[in-house]
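Collaborator request, handled under Task 6.
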Amino acid sequence: MDLVTSIVAFLMIWWLSLFVVLPWGNEAEESPEEGNVASAPAKPRILLKFMVTTGIAIVLWCILYILLSMEIIDMFDVAQQMMIEDKAE
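Structure tokens returned to the collaborator:
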């Protein structure tokens, strides 16, 4: 996996992980201030969620890197099979 592919894969994994982590521990304020949405979280803890997201993304990216470097998953073979299936349809 080259540098650009590694960065793109990490960013995609990070972004997907963020959407999984964002709802964790959100509780709405009991009496929101005027002008605030009633469903807005009282303590969003964004920095903590970014750190958890980064940790999850690092672990998942390492797993992906190991699978690709040990050739357990061959992306060229997967792409070729997808092309063959697409032509068959």
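The cover message to the collaborator said: "The longest helix spans residues 46-69. The CA atoms of residues 1 and 37 lie 45 Å apart. Please let us know whether this matches your experimental observations."
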